[in-house]
Amino acid sequence: MFIRLNIVVIGPEPLVNEICQIATEFHEVTIETLIYEAVEQSALLVENHHESTDIFIFAGPSPYYISKESLPLESISYYIPFEGSDIYRLLVKVYEVYHDYPIISFDIIDAPYLEEIYEEIGILDTPYYLHSNKEDIVDSNALVDYHLNLLKEEKVQVIATTLNSVYERLKELDTPVFLIKHTKAQIRDTLEKAILKGKKQKKEEAQMIVLQFQMINEEKEQNLHFQHECELMKEKILQYGKHLFSNMNVTKNHVITLYTTRGIFEKATNRRRDFTFLKELNELFSVKVNLGIGIGNTAESAHYNAKNALEFSIQKGKGNCFLIDEQKRVHGPLGTLHSIDYTLLNSKDENQSSLTLRKFYAWLSIIRTKEVTTREISIGMNTSERHAARILKNLCEKKIANIIGKESISQRGRPRVVYEINLIELRKHVNEKRKDEIRSISSNQ
């Protein structure tokens, strides 16, 4: 299905214009802008923006952290980071002007990126200053004073800032200042990530949710008082169904079933944090009610998950609420401080895990090594690095693998962790798992 996303871009006009220009490459988005002169205005702009918004894109980390508490809970938010390519471009411009690398005062960028770049271009001996508390609330005037003081004390020769308002102020004072700007690739990469997440969220919001309420009598006999309370409780649950815009309500054997969408449910329960409705029901009546919630891509799968979730809630005691999602993860008891989530494992999952470990052991035997990285496993076993990381994490927990160091820094990118595999213990583990599978098959025949 075609998904259209509403994106709001927040930042100073020059940076917002650049972001909007790149955003025109994505035909599934509608763009609005919130422009400020000083970064401190960003939170107020977000608070006063009442239009429906799927994604907020900030021109940098500073406006994001200032506005974080004002963002709507259901919206996705990203900021465009200042990373390697942005800093390289700045240093190229500085070198073009000075034909050397002067002492620079930076702000609002990550120290590791800066140190790594200085090391890579061979200027670690050149000192620099960095104001890098990007998660703190930024004071533009204080930041201007910070840079000017360093310049007046002749500790630095050039200023490089990420904030347009600071850049404009310093330029008016005729100081040697450069604005660190995002590369088009960095903007495009952030937009792609945000749009992918936005599409995923929209699809999830369209998923079906089934809520099954089971009324339970503490007395053995279902007397007139029980029946009367059930009718009152039924009315309240159906009223709650209207709050969820539930388009179908089924009542059978003291079980009330409501159907809605995930988006409506998440909003009504404050992202599954608010189940005061269920608590109030159980406090109001002597009849207790349990709730099972199921999420699925179809009404049938959601109903199946809700039925199983209801059984979980009844097993845990009266008045409980559990949820099973589309990936068969169990969440609960919801509405309490002790809520946890875990996956419902079955024999198929166990067999798949065992098959993966046998494949891993066979691959290690072929290449005749016991030292590997996630990247090597990914290439050798034709799988993702994330899956490779899960394999190694599992083996580390079983004391079959352990971390022994990192790759040589001559490799491209950041060095990866190197793991050492105990091949003898791995072989034992694989053989034991295989024997368990055979015994399981035999017992089922």
Automatic annotation (TrEMBL):
Name the domain of life this protein comes from.
Answer: Bacteria
Q: Which InterPro entries match?
A: Rev_trsase/Diguanyl_cyclase (IPR043128)
Which protein are we looking at?
Answer: Transcriptional regulator
